[in-house]
Write a structure and sequence with these properties.
Number of helices: 9
Distance between the termini: 12 Å
Order of helices and strands: EHHHHHEHEHEHEEH
Low-confidence stretches: none
Strand content: 5-15%
Strand order of the largest sheet: 3-2-1-4-5-6
């Protein structure tokens, strides 16, 4: 991408906030303590993408739980996650300044996440950043999860920007793959996965630990 992007689309968990270990911990405790599993940390971490019911289906099979049970377990997991993460809730270093820079330039921004609205509201309202985002796409707004492109394409549609002119920020390979499938370039925050895990994806412009990298201030100039 040689020009300033026309829109910025952010995944949330692990991309805007460094919280994926808290999601993994909450699921691992539910899997093992409440559902009788014996899953290692790495086994649970590998499932940390997509909607909560999909996580349960991948781990326990599609017939283990009713829809109501999946909803109940999902909400219990999110309550546990929020209680443990709230004292640590913070934007990644440099992101507050980057959001303000984009806002001052009138670049439209969206969140496109597999999180449920309950978690998106938790982040936006506790950090007081809701005003930066013209569009929010949650797990409840799509039929098909990442790596399907629906989440990102819907965000672009809501922002009224051609997908090719959007820039996606992601932290997991499946999310970055969704950006590729949507025809969007991506920047990867290496909060939860290493650079080598994205080697098969040709559309990634940059890797960074956080938003203090000089790349981000230059991106909007």
């Amino acid at each position: 991408m040689t020009a300033i992007p026309h829109a910025l689309i952010f995944d949330m968990n692990g991309t805007m906030i460094n919280d994926m270990d808290y999601h993994t911990k909450a699921w691992q405790r539910i899997f093992n303590e409440e559902l009788g599993g014996n899953f290692t940390w790495n086994e649970v971490k590998a499932q940390m993408y997509g909607k909560n019911p999909e996580v349960l289906e991948r781990v326990f099979g599609p017939l283990k739980f009713t829809e109501d049970e999946k909803t109940e377990l999902s909400f219990a997991k999110e309550k546990r996650y929020q209680e443990e993460y709230l004292p640590h809730l913070a934007l990644l270093p440099g992101l507050a300044a980057f959001l303000e820079q984009a806002h001052q330039l009138a670049i439209p921004m969206a969140i496109a996440s597999a999180a449920i609205p309950f978690n998106i509201d938790f982040v936006l309202d506790n950090l007081n950043i809701r005003h930066y985002f013209k569009a929010l796409v949650s797990a409840d707004d799509v039929l098909l999860s990442k790596p399907h492109p629906e989440t990102f394409l819907k965000a672009a549609q809501l922002l009224q920007v051609d997908p090719v002119n959007c820039l996606v920020f992601e932290d997991v390979p499946k999310g970055a793959e969704a950006a590729l499938n949507a025809g969007m370039p991506a920047v990867v925050l290496t909060t939860t996965h290493q650079k080598y895990e994205f080697e098969h994806l040709p559309h990634i412009l940059h890797f960074s630990d956080d938003f203090t990298d000089p790349y981000f201030s230059q991106l909007l100039k």
